[in-house]
Fold this protein.
Amino acid sequence: MLLAGGFAQALTPMNLLFALIGVFLGTAVGILPGIGPALTVALLLPVTFKLDPGGSLIMFAGIYYGGMYGGSTTAILLNTPGEAASVVTALEGNKMARQGRGGPALATAAIGSFVAGLVATIGIAFLAPVIVKVAVKFGPWDYFALMMIAFVTVSATFGNSPLKGLTSLALGLWLGLMGIDGLTGQARLTFGVPELLDGIEVTTLAVGLFAIGEALMVVSMHKTNAEKPMAIKGSIWMSLEDWKRSWKPWLRGAAIGFPIGGLPAGGAEVPTFLSYNLERKLCRDKNAFGNGAIEGVAGPEAANNASAAGTMVPLLTLGLPTSATAAVMLAGFQQYNIQPGPLLFVQHAQLVWTLIASLFIANAMLLVLNLPMIGLWVRLLKIPTPWLYAGILVFAAMGTIAANPSVVELIILVLFGIAGFLMRRYDYPVAPAVVGLILGPMADLQLRRALQISLGDPMVFLNHWSSATMLAIAFIALVAPFVFKGLSRFQAEED
Amino acid sequence: MFAKLIGCGVAALCLSMSNAVAQDAKLGELSIIAPAGAGGGWDSAARAIQQVMTETGIARSIQVLNVPGAGGTVGLAQFATGAGSDANQLLVGGITMVGAIISNNAPVKLDAVKPLARLTGDPLAVVVPASSDIKTIDDLLGKIKSDVAGTVWAGGSAGGADHMLAALLTEAAGEDPSKVNYVAFSGGGEALAAMLGGQVVAGISGYGEWQGQIESGDLRALAISYPEPIEGIDAQPLKAQGVDVELVNWRGIFAAPQVSDEDMAKLTAAFDEMVKSDKWQELLKARGWADYYLPADEFASFLTEETQRIEGILTSVGLAGK
């Protein structure tokens, strides 16, 4: 009933226009690496001050959803993830694009984002009070156990050689240690460079390793056999088979992304890793993954949009922003004298339901705007290779500078680009390095927080049933493949 | 390219809006460096100044530039070396920056720039979960005295204002502040979850960040660290409760290193006018910030004292950089 009222409020032509502008802006900034939705919302705050609260919040929701989706376009077509949550999308998505299946890849990302956003928004409307009760119970021990599951699943991104994958992961973990330690405030591995005190920016590493590395690789192969990705092969739309292979990953991705996004320190990256690995495990055709499996795009893309919706839960129910964009949106609430928190649903029920309704609208708008654009995007690949990659280099450098205007950042980007080239040249997978940079510091921080709270007693991880269960899952996932291998060998010998 | 164009469009929109209000503004086209990412305290302070100054017509236009990094010291270094004598460039800063300079032993310190005005002061709140058997600040001090390591604190980043207050309270209870068991979270938000989940004994954060939970009764505020009682906040100052501790999370604005006296006088007058405007006062109320205004000269001497005091606190916790 309240939701219907919210729709009545949100479905004015003016608000629909705001939703459209928001989604358009969001998609655009998502595509450019570096400029995130947070900065865009912050830039727009003074402009929206003149609008009514409903209108501006609708626009912000559009930017947020659009930004989460936009990052996938460049990840798929150009192997250049616009943000950390799209790194996994690049793995299978770009393989698909190279086989001329960029259209279906983009379509499954767009529709998956829509489906997941829809599921998650329904989740906000009906489950927010429940989720938030669980979320605050989530202690450092639980986060650490969740990280362990994520770490175990990382092996899925290793490519062919586990040893090379581990090397790449170790590089990421090392980079992750750089900067001011969150718990003691002391600098680690910064070599006296003040710009390193905040650690390595994930987008800088991702853009360097993926985009610049890729560009250098293409240049180096120019004389020999430059592999030109096929622009389009077959239909640019999803076939019946694609639909069949996509719908389950969409739902599973949403089921993973939404609750983790709702955790105060959950984030959007971890659910994409988990979803990718789950789809890989569930995929019947063992050779599909690594060769452009549509499931590997559908799942993570759904997970990342669902987690964006998930962050609305702590924002609305606790007044707790769990991402930079949510923090700016909180400021947006405050400029209308509205304090999100436990009392928001009571004091400003109408506004909350307008916002939830506007999330639905922004979500639908995302689909309306992006599906017709696919044909246009895919044509990007028809641009002659030198032009295309020169463009990527400009984009990458510009995005990095926009996010952090400093020479040091640019130097770091170039160094990562060279590292990315060398890793490609010698066949090391680049994704584990990015994953290590994301997960390493989080696991480190949560482990030490847990031990600090338990006064150094490691049993804290087993005394809580939730963390104990998750650690058990991680352990089984780690050991089971070896056990099964051993068993089947044992059986083979018996025969 | 897309985003760039749109960025220009947005900027142009802001410009044209502010142009409409102010043709003969006192200040020209300012740019303010917020030495933190979008969404943080300094960023919102800078954007608050932007909003009020352009709406009241004190400045023709203001651009906010985010230079995040290392507790604001990266932005400070960039500003101190780049701004020269340009009166149109300003920098936002605050107590966290003072602390970060000390604990990172930053090469560029706040004496490299000119203090212009102290603007806002956030009271810090000392809270416990509603279910806790600690009812008063004296109970909490007693708990610290009986078990300093077991008194697990949650609060914002290590070495920040929250951490300093935990150290001061530990000292006030008669214990060694270097033993304080302080679990640092990235801001009051994540710490809030640890509080509500009952994972820690007590927490410290800006009052505004936890206001909702305090009012709904999920958290119990024992005291605020502001020197005087604040209208609308039930919790009383530590000082009024017999604990001689005071710490305000203040934010201020700084001018370029070599600004001429003439320009400095113009800037001081402009900020004086802004602080006294109704728009600014309304905004303070909306954001839950206290008016903590001090003009340039007094701000400068406050800064010298505050720097010494913070150095003392951070040394006692073992966080001062060598």
In short: Chain A has 22 helices and two strands. Chain A has a mean pLDDT of 80. Chain A has one domain: 2-494.
